[in-house]
Amino acid sequence: MDRDGEIDERGPIKIGPGLRAAIVHYGEGAEPDEGHRSHRAGRLAALLADAGVSVTRIVPSFRDWDGFQRPEEWTGTDGREGRLVIIPTRSYTNTRGRDRAGSLLDFNRGVRRYLAANVGFDLVMAGFPPPGLLRGITAADPGAATIADIRDLWPDALLPEGSIGRFLGPVATLAGRALARELNRADAVVALSATMLRRAPSGAARTEVIPIGFEPSTEEDRKLWPTDPAPMSACYVGSMNQLFDLDAMLRGWLAYVEHRQSVGPSPVLTVVGDGDQRPLVDSLVGSEPTVHLAGWVPGNEVGAHLHAADFGLTPTRTGHGTTISNKVSEYLAAGMYVLNTLNPEVGRPLEERGLGHRFESEPAAWAAAFERSEKRLSQIRADRAERLAEGDRQYGAGPTNEAWLDLIGEVLIARRASSSTLSAG
To answer: Contact at 8 Å (CB) between 122 and 412?
Structure first.
């Protein structure tokens, strides 16, 4: 269906002026964050705003990646992603601690209060988790059509490796089922991959996989691409948390460098990010000259690191690589070749399309992947523009935006038809 698709006797719904939409999300940046780059929720907000929709972007005050509290005075700021609303939430340092749970609760309650005081939205898109958010949204503004966007396999993703087993396994299963039941409240459920979509209940009205999407690189970006005889360069960008097997990746790199057969210039690994595993990373790397630890950098500086490297590294722990994530999409947007330990259903299509190489999360497998990549370096560099085009066809902004607009149109149509039926009854 296009933006002006037929609905009922009252004519078409146009996704444009006259519609009000709220985009509610917990874990992304937003204007005017320092160095802000739009991600999934922000790009959807900008897409709708560009079409003339009145968009409200609702985010928590606490920014978890750098511990910053956004001032409440930012509420009302207008930008490319619409009008910003800040929900006051407490700070936390431990992502699995009581303070984080309290921060999520603050957000849920604040969103519900805001929507109850500002009813009349036509559409509310809510990132999921946190649990309870969707329940509050549908209670506060029952007239709005709702889309739940599954972003994490919660609670699995919050449990440390090896903890889902004899004792916590049943708890995680029960919690997952409870969350799935909450998704029944949505008019549609979206996820980044088929694996994540299986979290949705079988009775959900509409379900759809929509990739995370990304904007294409520019001519200026491409000037940074390395060419022969520059040394092989790899880059990891992301959080240093329990979802990533940085130990295996770094041990693999060190083994590769130690036993490297090539006589060319020494390869370079750049690690961008910070988090709980930083002490582990520091202890493994030490003074190794081939590894550069860049730490946390503003979002608008990340692209330079990506375009200047040949390979993007995605060291997800076994079972956690369920989707083309923000960082993988950024690698694809830069035309990088993605070395990854993603789940097979996600990693193998990348390999089949010539966009990367998948293997198991073990030091020896990483070492072999680096060695294999260096042997193919000239060809991988020559194919970069072709990879960029293929990534854009499969995962880029074009197909993603069309999928969002089609789904939103269908949801609004169904909601209006339902309202007409209820009124007639």
So the answer is: yes
d(CA 191, CA 168): 25
Integer Cα distance of 280 and 310 in angstroms: 25
**DSSP state letter for 156:** G
Closest by Cα among 143, 109, 145, 153 to 126: 145
- Rounded to a whole number of angstroms, the CA Rg of the chain reads 22
SS3 331: helix
Find out whether 409 and 5 touch, Cβ atoms under 8 Å: yes
Statement: residue 82 has pLDDT above 60: yes
d(C-alpha 146, C-alpha 408), whole Å: 9
Locus of tokens 């897409």: 47
Tokens standing for 79? 């930008």
- 140 C-beta neighbours (distance < 10 Å), count: 19
The residue among 113, 92, 111, 114 whose CA lies nearest residue 103 is 92
In this prediction the pTM is 0.79
- Average pLDDT taken over every residue of the chain: 87
Mean pLDDT of 213-231: 91
What pLDDT score does 34 carry? Answer: 86
Task: Write the pLDDT tens digit of every residue in 255-267.
Answer: 999 999 877 899 9
Q: Is 310 helix (H, G, I), strand (E, B) or coil?
A: coil
CA angle 67, 307, 66 (to 5 degrees): 0
